[in-house]
Amino acid sequence: MTSSTSPAAPSDTVRLRQKLAASLDEGVYIDVVESIPSTNTALKERADSSDQHVLLALEQTAGVGRRGGAWLSPPVGNLYLSYAFHSERPLSELTFLPMTIAVALADEFEALFGVDCKIKWPNDIYLGGKKCGGILIETVNVSADKLAVIIGLGLNVAEAPSSDVLQRPATSLNAELEHDVAFDEVAAVCAKTIIDICRLSHDSLKTLLRSSWPKRDLLFNKRISAPSLGAGSAIARGLSSDGGLQVEFAGAMTTLYAGEVSLGHVDTQ
Fold first, then answer.
1. Quick one: how far is CA 197 from the chain centroid?
2. Cβ neighbours around 227 below 10 Å, total
3. Could you count the other beta carbons within 10 Å of the beta carbon of residue 39?
4. More exposed terminus of the chain, fewer Cβ within 10 Å: N or C?
5. How far, in Å, CA of 132 to CA of 190, rounded?
6. Cβ neighbours of residue 42 under 8 Å, at least 6 residues apart?
7. Alpha-carbon distance values, 210 to 96, 106, 199 (Å)
């Protein structure tokens, strides 16, 4: 363990690690810490040795969201989890990975808790029309033909950051269900789901994403705004065959592959 982590209270780390270990195979190394600047950053710093490595923190002090933005990570019972593995796949084959993880987690949350979970392109998790979590993927070259792939999940389990701070509505699992969920169970399900999806072939990822995305698509046929398109609103028309967001804008169809997309508000993490 590097100096960037601080040990959690024994009762927390032991219980959580035991729960994760019971759900994951023996080849996965598991770290649980009380506080850390960022789980993704920590695994990136250990990229050479971070293969089949799960890192879970009860608090992040410098969490990172998409586009390099801050991910607010209060120590209130939320989930901050990263998984790193080594891969020889080309970068182009990793495109579908975070989106497929998002829809797979949505399927799990619906099965476990009966919630209607949607995904806002590309990989933000929404409950009741409000953001509850998000997926981040980062890569580090570890050799000429090998990457360390780091998947990060931030999930509001107990409490959502203030909507005033985020400039848009946010929620948590507990708030939507109106009761407390078992944090250990949520952590174990999320870790197992992420690892299972990361082990799928590229063709299997595409098949799963294309079959599951329409049910989970928060934006489909809704008016959106995207700074990359310029002034005015567009209408989201679903996922393209290569993972982009198809939109109708100014009388023509175009596809977005990156950048901010909003439903009448500005995403900040």
1. 12
2. 11
3. 29
4. N
5. 14
6. 2, 4, 5, 36, 55, 82
7. 10, 14, 18
Domain 10-216, what fold? BirA Bifunctional Protein; domain 2 (3.30.930)
Instruction: Evaluate whether 74 touches 80 at the Cβ level (below 8 Å).
Output: no
pTM: 0.88
Q: What DSSP character marks residue 223?
A: E
Cα(266)–Cα(244) distance, integer angstroms:
20
Where in the chain are all domains bearing CATH 3.30.930.10?
10-216
pLDDT band at 259 (very low <50, low <70, confident <90, very high): confident
Helices (H), ranges, the chain? 10-23, 39-45, 97-113, 163-166, 173-177, 183-198, 202-216
Domain 219-269 class, CATH top level? mainly beta
60: its two tokens: 């992040």
Identify residue 171 by its one-letter amino acid code: T
Q: How far is CA 202 from CA 131, 165, 205, in A?
A: 28, 38, 5
> 129-171 pLDDT, tens per residue?
999 999 999 999 999 999 999 999 999 999 887 666 666 789 9
